[in-house]
Amino acid sequence: MKNNSTFKSAISGLPFAESEKICGKSIHDPILGLIKKEFPDFNDDDCIAVNELNVYRQKYISNYLSTEIGALSAMEKSVISSLKDDKSIVSSVEDEEETRNLGQRVADKVADFGGSWTFIISFVVFITIWIGSNVYIFLNKGFDPYPFILLNLILSCVAALQAPVIMMSQNRQEEKDRNRAKKDYMINLKSELEIRMIHDKIDHLIMHQQQELIEIQKVQIEMMNDILDQIKK
What we know:
By secondary structure, this protein is mainly alpha-helical. The chain is built from five helices and four strands.
């Protein structure tokens, strides 16, 4: 003969069959926490029905899934923000080109022209014309006869002026290379720290997921056992 006795639920106050009675001390901790969050006076000696417990079980699973999706979205936003910061670091090296003063721009132009085949060929043509005009046209009695003292003076002046200008450009280029190397180091360090951070987040997420999946499996097993108990009764 079936037992028709009933009990009163501690959270809804409604009567339920005694076969559906679940005491607080037998409820899993995460789910018990959800119940106590809505009903602070609920304790281990209070009882609720299986149907009411299933509502909180479903709520627990829904909260878990929502939390995991939110954590993944926050991680993606963090990575995207870090990539934007990297872009600002790299672009700052190129922006230094716009901060050159007039002297630095002139030094760079002179260094670029002095180290090109255009300068070499032009200078060879100039020297050839200079020497040829004095030797063959003016028969070595022109404005700069052999041994071409004026030409030697011009060459010495060009070398004396060109050398420090090229050194200025080289020093600025070395400073730029040092700054670029410093920025590269900063980018590499930032990338390494981000990779470590992502690894830590993934490890934490995996561990958290494993724990939560175990909890969900326990909840599902409890629900199946309750169903089997009701079938047997």
